[in-house]
Write a structure and sequence with these properties.
Blueprint: H1 3-27, E1 38-41, E2 44-47, E3 54-55, H2 58-73, H3 75-98, H4 124-131, H5 135-143, H6 147-161, H7 200-205, H8 208-226, H9 236-239, H10 246-254, H11 257-264, H12 285-294, E4 306-308, H13 315-330, H14 338-345, E5 347-351, H15 354-371, E6 385-388, H16 393-397, H17 400-406, H18 411-423, H19 427-430, H20 441-456, H21 461-481, E7 485-490, H22 502-511, H23 519-525, E8 529-540, H24 550-559, E9 561-569, E10 579-585, E11 594-597, H25 604-609
Parallel strand pairs: 4-5, 4-7, 5-6, 7-8, 9-11
Antiparallel strand pairs: 1-2, 2-3, 8-10, 9-10
Helix pairs in contact: 1-3, 1-8, 2-3, 3-15, 5-6, 8-15, 10-13, 13-14, 13-15, 14-15, 18-20, 20-21
């Protein structure tokens, strides 16, 4: 993988997109320090101080941008959100076209023959039905010689066409995004043309390319954000994004998910494919008997539940998918059915970062499509259970209780909604560390589904457009947060809580007394895992030594057991602290673990595979 090319493109794309979107907003009379007045005059939108006249429909789209993004977020954060939305879409389109996953079969960003004009433009007659192109509009662009305008129209039509399959990336009702497409898309220096500087094989060989591109896209802000005096919900995603190297992901997955399988099926051929799997430590006969009592037996792959509570762009989830796929095959399931079964039954992901959660969902769907050529078709498609964690502050401002009462939600549903709204008020900062009580969240989800059409017909658009989806999302996330799993596997945020806003800080201190100084340690104390299940993590090694984590260490010794550990030290990946990776069993069996000290090793992976360092 050409990481230099990935880095250069990601940095270029971010700068270019943010500059172009700023210009697009300025042309609409939306500036950093003011918003010009706009009015509808006849069939036109007239914007004060802007010489251009826009069609009447632009008025509503411009208003949507202002009300949904500029006012609540601010100008610069809105620009960043628009930019990363287009970045994610461009990366997704490139992956789809390189793998020939677009329904019409033509490339939308590039051409296979290397010509400058995207392949789709020469084949519109074959793609018109897939993209629902208006022939009159196409003819009008061609007759006027406006190829740039034609391409913008076609590109946005492609985004619309993908909204059903990938709603997380290509929304069906975001027509305002067309106004924020960069200019000169067909020029040699455009964000679309430049994507061809990344070797095509990098997209063909592994979905991991998506994670690296996102890591490089956000890295320019990380150092700047570290200087912030207060860490707000806008800063947490960037500060906590660190891409986990492939071999560490495999080590964690094979020694947790893989261990469940080998405990059930010691003679499984999968053992020979897991080169990072570590054999159990030798134990005394007494401990051995205790271990045998709690091992997994005759496990059905359908029943293995895995949570990645800080999933980022999905690297860990994708490898877990690959491992589970082999388990299903070994039990005789049809290869074409397995992707849907995995996404429906096994994998659950959460992240506070909307853009990362989008890419994680996309990466899993790409893995599924690589196996099942009909995966995108009804009824085979299954959307990954990966969610962005939101907060409930907008619901509070909408006066959600009033609407729920007016639309005759049951008292039980309203009670659950009130609990969720209160609990998730700081959800965007606390994230997956929220402690959620098990409740009948399906009751609320069922009532939302039943009343959706009724509410739409009452013209209560704001509650319908925002209130209901946000309530639904809170209930979906609460179901995941309140459940138990066989494996929690993650690279959590390395984020001290001293700079957090007071409410979030107080919550974390109250709920994580043994690990209260840093979020990474709190995930060690979180209660996601079933009795006898596994916790697999990579995090800073400070919890092993500092006095502030003494109670956490005592809790692990008393209530859990370290299966194995790789003490990495500095330089294992893009983290500015010494790290360690480990697998802990949620059972107090005592006994021995297996430990690898790689602190002084330059090639840590090679040293691990050779049996350890010092």
């Amino acid at each position: 993988m050409d990481k230099k090319a990935l880095l250069e493109y990601a940095l270029f794309a971010r700068k270019s997109l943010e500059e172009q979107i700023t210009l697009s907003l300025n042309r609409l009379g939306i500036f950093k320090d003011k918003i010009a007045v706009a009015n509808i005059v006849g069939d036109f939108t007239i914007i004060e101080g802007i010489s251009s006249n826009y069609p009447k429909r632009i008025y509503g789209l411009r208003k949507q941008i202002i009300e949904e993004y500029i006012k609540p977020l601010g100008f610069e954060p809105a620009v960043e959100e628009f930019a990363y939305t287009w970045f994610n879409r461009i990366v997704a389109l490139r992956f789809l076209e390189v793998h020939d996953y677009l329904s019409h079969g033509f490339r939308v960003l590039t051409s296979q023959d290397g010509s400058r004009e995207p392949e789709i433009l020469g084949n519109l007659q074959f793609a018109r039905f897939d993209l629902k192109l208006d022939d009159d509009v196409v003819v009008k662009f061609k007759e006027s010689g406006d190829i740039e305008g034609l391409y913008r129209y076609v590109l946005f039509a492609q985004c619309k066409a993908l909204s059903k399959t990938f709603p997380m990336l290509f929304e069906a009702h975001d027509n305002y995004m067309e106004l924020l497409l960069p200019n000169n898309l067909l020029s040699d220096n455009s964000v679309i043309s430049k994507i061809s500087t990344i070797p095509e094989d990098d997209f063909k060989n592994d979905v991991e390319v998506i994670g690296w591109l996102y890591q490089y896209y956000v890295q320019s802000n990380r150092q700047e954000f570290r200087k912030a005096k207060v860490v707000t919900k806008q800063l947490v995603p960037t500060l906590s994004q660190v891409f986990t190297p492939d071999w560490i992901v495999r080590y964690m997955a094979e020694n947790s998910i893989g261990r469940i399988w080998l405990e059930s099926y010691p003679n499984s051929s999968l053992k020979h494919e897991m080169k990072y799997y570590v054999e159990d430590a030798k134990q005394t006969p007494k401990v051995e008997r205790e271990v045998d009592k709690i091992k997994y037996h005759d496990v059905n792959p359908l029943d293995i539940k895995i949570i990645e509570p800080c999933c980022g762009s999905g690297h860990i989830l994708v490898y877990a998918f690959d491992l589970l796929y082999k388990m299903y095959l070994e039990k005789g399931y049809s290869s074409k059915d397995i992707p849907g079964l995995i996404l429906k039954n096994n994998l659950f992901g959460l992240d506070v970062d909307k853009r990362a959660a989008q890419l994680s969902q996309f990466a899993l769907m790409m893995r599924a499509r690589a196996i099942d050529s009909r995966f995108f078709n009804e009824p085979r498609i299954v959307f990954p259970k990966v969610y962005e964690i939101i907060d409930s502050k907008h619901l509070i401002s909408l006066n959600y209780q009033k609407f729920m009462e007016e639309f005759y939600f049951s008292k039980d549903a309203i009670d659950i909604a009130e609990y969720l709204v209160k609990t998730f008020e700081n959800g965007k900062v606390i994230g997956s560390l929220l402690k959620i009580s098990p409740k009948n969240y399906d009751l609320l989800l069922d009532e939302i589904a039943l009343k959706k059409d009724f509410i739409a017909n009452t013209l209560q658009f704001e509650f319908y457009d925002y209130g209901l989806p946000e309530l639904k999302r809170l209930a979906e996330v609460a179901k995941i947060l309140s459940s138990k799993y066989d494996v929690m596997i993650t690279n959590p945020p390395y984020l001290g809580i001293s700079k957090l806003e007071k409410d979030a800080k107080d919550y974390l201190i109250d709920n994580y007394p043994n690990s209260k100084s840093d979020m990474f340690a709190m995930f060690m104390e979180a209660s996601y895992v079933k009795k006898n299940g596994f916790i697999a993590m990579v995090n800073p090694d400070s919890w092993m030594f500092l006095v502030s984590f003494e109670q956490l260490r005592k809790k692990i010794i008393k209530e859990q057991s370290i299966v194995n550990m790789v003490h990495l030290g500095m330089g294992a990946f893009d983290a500015t602290v010494q790290t360690t990776s480990f697998v802990i069993r949620n059972a107090p069996i005592g006994g021995n673990g297996v430990y690898f000290r790689l602190v002084d090793e330059k090639d840590k992976e090679a040293a691990f595979l050779a049996g350890g360092g010092e």
